[in-house]
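Write out this protein's structure.
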Amino acid sequence: MGEGFRFTAVQCWIKDIMEGGFVNEEEGPSKIILGNGQKIGRVNIIGIVTNVIKDMPFRFMIDDGTGQIEVIDFENERNLSVGDFVRVIAMPKEYLNNRYLILEILKMSDPAWVKLKIKTNIKGKDFKEEILNFIKAQDKGSGVSFEDLEMNIGDIEQTVTFLLEKGYLFEIKPGYLKVLE
């Protein structure tokens, strides 16, 4: 890998990080290996802060509904509190069989996204991207009917309602949806 190369931050669950294989390569960053064989060098996680330790290095725990993991920031002390909703971009690491994340980016997140992500994990499927991609692919100008979405994807009413409320979708006419671009 060339100098300046950075892995794409991949959205995943904490459970995937804790249960995946781990590779410490001599040249390059360590990686998590998911069940499908995908190697991840940077992660993108949305969750709730469950513990904050303000010593140096600054550390906090994040929970995404599938598990908890420690996040360490060696450079800054953050203004975080238990219960904050955050998005973390970080590099996975392992030391003495303990997995943790080295923080790169921390953003406060909309609680609705965190709750939806946790809810979709409980159902076993996250439909947001699938719904948006399906509508983009099928829309010939007059939108896509809710019934077509449900027949092709499944029980999506809560997720569609969320996407409508957040402005990702709009109803062009009753029962027909378009992606707001």
